[in-house]
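Dear Dr. H.,

I hope your travels went smoothly. While you were away I took the liberty of generating a structure for the chain from your last submission, since the lab meeting agenda had it listed for discussion. I wanted you to have the full record in hand beforehand rather than looking at slides cold. The sequence, exactly as received, is reproduced here:
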Amino acid sequence: MKSKDFYLFIIAIGIFFSAFSQQFQGIATYKTDRKIDLKMDSTSVNAEMQQQIQAQLRKQFQKEYTLSFNTSESVYKEEESLAAPSPATTGGINIVISGNSDILYRNIKTQEYSNQTEIMGKVFLIKDSLTKKDWKLEKETKNIGEYTCFKATLTEEVTEQTFNSNHDDLEKVTKKRVTTAWYTPQIPVSNGPGEYWGLPGLILEINDGEQSILCSKIVLNPTKISIEAPDKGKVVTQEEFDAIKEKKNQELMENLEDNHSKKDGNSFRIKIGG
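The corresponding predicted structure, in token form, is as follows:
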């Protein structure tokens, strides 16, 4: 597609957006996956066991979410599912990560969001203003199911935290992360999964190099849809919540340091952010 034609196409999408009825709504189902960075340097944990732990961790992050949306609002939350039987593992190691109870409501018209989440059993309700992401619209296209999607990229700096038991400390590293999104103008809502929004069409796929989110099903104009902001938990701003989370992470790392001070000869590295 030539540059002039591409930008005329984007303008046409904007006109289409403004003309679209508020009654337009739908439910999109997404599946997530995540790369796991786990390093265990120990004479008691062989390569086979490390692979088992890595596989178990990755399985725990393979979740299914739904995004209920109309032209200005959305609710994103994890689908409830029955827990699978715990697999037998060598050495009796079994890893279970509790389900994500977050409910993320976003209102693009008022530029606000509410996120009901929890830390160590305590529920918080984050209420704050949306921050627009600096997407770069690309010309590349591909099909996802029956939808033609356009590529967009987002470059930002993120902080990654790593606990290294060899040094008994929490290391913070700031790095550049490039996120690739695929959106379809055929569904003219400026929304998407998780924290991602702000493109001229529904986002069907996200990949930031570590996490991938892929839309597996879309139902347009269903007979029944619920889009309501969550209302449970202690109300905080995003900045306040980040400070609370940072404090809890630090306490967790200090506990790990205390346990490791016994010096049993085992060492490990855990990446907890980024």
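Two observations you may find useful: The chain has a mean pLDDT of 80. The chain has three helices and 14 strands.

With kind regards,
E. W.
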